[in-house]
Amino acid sequence: MGCKDDFMPLTKVDGKGRVVLPSELRSRLDISPGDELIVDELGPDALVLKKVDLHSMIEEIIEKAKSVDLDRLEEEIEEEANRLARKKYKVLD
Question: How far apart (Å, rounded) are the C-alpha atoms in residues 49 and 29?
Fold first, then answer.
């Protein structure tokens, strides 16, 4: 685990909560200034960072949204709303 020679570099959190990632790690993972990372708690005393490209993710979502059939979506929403209303108010078909 860690760097390829199993040496895990030590870093510190500064007064503003910032952590400097070692240059070898930034280089190997192609992390540059301005890159965005998701931070999550992995467990007690462990965090995980994941590099994300929000711009690419948004572009992908927009492209997928273009293929949505809005008329069909509206029909499905109406059908589901009617089904839920019939169930809630115990109306028989």
Answer: 11
Give per-residue burial for 30-52: e unless 16+ CB within 10 Å, then b: eeeeeeeeeeeeeeeeeeeeeee
Span 23-73, pLDDT tens digits: 999 999 999 999 999 999 999 999 999 999 888 889 999 999 999 999 999
Structure tokens at 37: 């990372």
Longest dimension (CA), the chain: 69
Whole-Å CA distances, 6 to 1, 29, 33: 6, 16, 26
Reference 32, options 19, 48, 21; nearest CA is: 21
